[in-house]
């Protein structure tokens, strides 16, 4: 039986030409666009923020949103999504400016848990608001008495905010699972 044996070949450390000054920023292969600390991650955070602010401002501009619990829940969830996305966008901007990777295990756990909570709340609020909007528009036929266009716009913006929050959560969760 012929079995091949692995041979070990030592590899020398390449010498540096700049006198040992090794301050170049490190780039990992695991820094996929969309993860924290990347330009794609910043773009996702800013889009989450913009769509959540739009949903919040459109819904809050109506005078009768507090009368429906689902619409009030949408305002609260959109506010939470705005705050979370803005804070993480600031962290992403800082990480990009100082050229640091945000792949610390504890930071990724915090991002994954926060993204999971914020995206779940936003999705649930958008679904509840969509249900009430369909009830008002189709079943009760009372759109003339209500602000159906604003309700539908705010609900659509909340769904779009969730669609942009979902990749952030999935990438952070994947990063945790691949460790």
Largest sheet: none
Structural class by sheet pairing and helices: mainly alpha
For the terminal residues, how far apart are their CA atoms? 38 Å
* SSE order: HHHH
Shape: elongated
Q: How large a portion of the residues is in β-strands, by DSSP E?
A: under 5%
Number of strands: 0
Number of helices: 4
- Integer average pLDDT: 85
Helix coverage percent: 55-70%
What's the gyration radius in Å? Answer: 23 Å
Q: Would you identify the regions where 5 or more consecutive residues have pLDDT less than 50?
A: none
Description:
This protein is an all-alpha fold and 179 residues long. 65% of the residues lie in helices and 0% in strands. It is elongated. 30% of the residues are buried.
What's the short story on this structure?
With 179 residues, this protein is mainly alpha-helical. It has helices spanning 39-60, 69-97, 105-139, 148-177.
List its salient traits.
mainly alpha; 0% strand; elongated; 179 residues; 4 helices
In terms of topology, how is this protein built?
Elements lengths: L38 H22 L8 H29 L7 H35 L8 H30 L2
Helix pairs in contact: 1-2, 1-4, 2-3, 2-4, 3-4
């Amino acid at each position: 039986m012929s079995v091949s044996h692995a041979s070990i070949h030592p590899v020398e450390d390449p010498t540096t030409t700049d006198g040992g000054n090794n301050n170049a920023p490190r780039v990992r292969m695991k820094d996929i666009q969309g993860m924290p600390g990347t330009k794609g991650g910043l773009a996702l955070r800013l889009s989450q923020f913009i769509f959540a602010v739009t949903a919040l401002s459109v819904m809050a501009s109506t005078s009768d949103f507090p009368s429906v619990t689902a619409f009030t829940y949408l305002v609260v969830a959109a506010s939470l999504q705005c705050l979370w996305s803005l804070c993480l966008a600031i962290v992403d901007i800082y990480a990009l400016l100082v050229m640091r990777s945000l792949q610390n295990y504890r930071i990724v756990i915090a991002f994954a848990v926060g993204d999971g909570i914020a995206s779940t709340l936003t999705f649930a609020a958008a679904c509840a608001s969509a249900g009430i909007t369909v009830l008002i528009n189709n079943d009760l036929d009372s759109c003339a008495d209500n602000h159906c266009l604003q309700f539908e716009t705010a609900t659509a913006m909340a769904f779009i905010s969730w669609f942009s929050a979902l990749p952030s959560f999935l990438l952070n969760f994947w990063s945790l699972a691949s460790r």
